RNA sequence: GGAGGAAUGGCAGAGUGGUCGAAUGCGGCGGUCUUGAAAACCGUUGUUCGCGCGAGCGGACCGGGGGUUCGAAUCCCUCUUCCUCCGCCA
């Protein structure tokens, strides 16, 4: 979330920039500032009364010790009225803080200056594209049919075991999945990322820290018995490693990577968008996360974009990179690049990665800071993350684009992971 | 799952109702000494909110939340986590 100081000092800018994100509640901003004024007044009053109580208590202590219990009793009488008054102020102060917190979390992050205006993905800005769209042979199929034809994916079995959106991978389909995970992780490790294998369930604090809670509660599977959430992305556990942490600047940038399954309820999705692997409830993803110094976060973002792009180049997939417009930008992001790959069998662009800079928005929720040398107060760090990459749609695109009448050709970078004799899936 | 014990500053560890935001040691930082370093000695060393132009002042924080009390690290309730023992288990 934005800090209250920032909102106070940049009221006009906040209101104006949030319009780009289609957040048109200037009255909420003003309500926050007003309530913060209340809070300050209440705190001054509360602190004064607390100081008075502390003083009196101290004196009462002395009186008891010096053998003057009558005087002490007399003084005790006086504390009761102050105490009653103090209780009121303390409650009001707490209410003000509660209000402020609940309102602050409703304010999205401010988009970066370069974020184009717009409401839908049609307004996203094409940054660059690469790869060649393949020309498929007569009778080419979409991946959900290829999956059945080559015994790689069994959607019906997933329905039987769990429900819709839980595909079962088998044989070389499962192997291809594992090959991609290994390849992605190795590529990330080579670029200096440290591999993590985090828990797949997180508590409420973690969900709050990265911004999934309280707003996007409906997107996560919730284990109510233990009040835990299945992670929608490795971003949640990996970024929360640094919740309530003050880092030394020498430790920055921190670069982490993790493979995890991801769980998303995807409530309200339907139709051809969810066909096959296009949108599922459980999928595998390799994630990269960076924690860095505020002055470095945009160069880190570029670095991450180039890094992810290289994966797609190596896989030989036609891709394009778009910068999200204000309306398409997520609640917590300041700047996001989406990667899409072309799936020839269904003539569709599929989103396979989203690389974002959250600036200090998550860090403020997480209380993730670093200490500037010589400075007394710690400052908020910047957090970034990106998919490198989300598996199902990559698999869909690989299957569709590399299909031939004789089978599906596996990209060369995966050969060593797929094992000998599996260069073509037949 | 059952029975017991514990949670204090970066770490270790005192403190069991009153000048305790907290002894002491280690670590960190600054200094004296030294050609330099070590040792020794001296000083310093948490987070956070508010008021003030400022020097500074006040408040909160001893795992989280609530309570008792004029006053809580200390007593009570509750949650969480860790340790020991028993049970179960990949």
Report low-confidence residues grouped into runs of 5 or more.
Answer: none
By DSSP, the count of extended strands is 19
* Helix content, binned percent: 40-55%
Q: Kindly name the structural category.
A: alpha+beta
Q: How many angstroms does the end-to-end distance come to?
A: 51 Å
Q: Kindly identify the CATH topology of the largest domain.
A: BirA Bifunctional Protein, domain 2
How does CATH name the architecture of the largest domain?
2-Layer Sandwich
Q: Tell me about the largest β-sheet.
A: 8 strands, mixed
- The count of domains is 2
CATH class value of the largest domain: Alpha Beta
Query: What value does the Rg take, in angstroms?
Result: 27 Å
Shape field: elongated
Query: What is the mean predicted local confidence, pLDDT?
Result: 93
Q: Strands of the biggest beta sheet: in what spatial order? A: 1-11-12-13-16-10-9-4
Number of helices: 13
- Beta percentage is 15-25%
CATH evolutionary superfamily of the largest domain: Bira Bifunctional Protein, Domain 2
């Amino acid at each position: 979330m934005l800090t209250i100081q920032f909102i106070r000092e940049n009221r006009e800018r906040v209101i104006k920039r949030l319009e780009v994100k289609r957040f048109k509640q200037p009255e909420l901003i003003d309500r926050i500032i007003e309530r913060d004024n209340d809070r300050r007044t209440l705190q001054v009053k509360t602190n004064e009364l607390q100081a008075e109580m502390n003083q009196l208590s101290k004196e009462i202590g002395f009186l008891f010790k010096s053998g003057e219990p009558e005087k002490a009793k007399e003084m005790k009488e006086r504390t009761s009225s102050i105490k009653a008054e103090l209780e009121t102020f303390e409650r009001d102060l707490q209410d003000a803080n509660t209000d402020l917190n609940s309102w602050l979390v409703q304010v999205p992050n401010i988009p970066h200056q370069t974020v184009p205006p717009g409401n839908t993905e049609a307004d996203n800005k094409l940054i660059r594209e690469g790869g060649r769209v393949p020309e498929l042979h007569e009778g080419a199929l979409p991946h959900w049919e290829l999956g059945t034809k080559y015994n790689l994916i069994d959607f019906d079995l997933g329905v039987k075991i769990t429900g819709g959106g839980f595909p079962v991978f088998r044989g070389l389909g499962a192997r291809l999945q594992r090959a991609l995970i290994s390849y992605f992780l190795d590529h990330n490790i080579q670029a200096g990322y440290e591999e993590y294998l985090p828990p797949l369930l997180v508590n409420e604090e973690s969900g709050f820290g990265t911004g999934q809670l309280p707003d996007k509660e409906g997107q996560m599977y919730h284990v109510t018995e233990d009040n835990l959430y299945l992670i929608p992305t490795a971003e949640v556990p990996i970024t929360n490693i640094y919740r309530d942490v003050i880092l030394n600047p020498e430790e920055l940038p921190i670069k982490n990577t993790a493979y995890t399954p991801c769980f998303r309820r995807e409530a309200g999705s339907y139709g051809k968008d969810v066909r096959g692997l296009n949108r599922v409830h459980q999928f595998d993803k390799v994630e990269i996360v960076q924690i860095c110094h505020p002055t470095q976060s945009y160069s880190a973002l570029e670095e991450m974009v180039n890094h992810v792009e290289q994966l797609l180049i190596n896989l030989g997939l036609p891709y394009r990179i778009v910068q999200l417009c204000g309306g398409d930008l997520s609640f917590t992001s300041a700047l996001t690049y989406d990667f899409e790959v072309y799936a020839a069998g269904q003539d569709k662009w599929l989103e396979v990665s989203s690389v974002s800079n959250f600036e200090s928005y998550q860090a403020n929720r997480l209380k993730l800071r670093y200490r500037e040398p010589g400075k007394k107060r710690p400052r908020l760090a910047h957090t970034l993350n990106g998919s490198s990459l989300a598996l199902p749609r990559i698999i869909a695109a690989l299957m569709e684009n590399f299909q031939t009448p004789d089978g599906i050709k596996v990209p060369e970078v995966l050969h060593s992971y797929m094992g000998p004799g599996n260069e073509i899936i037949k």
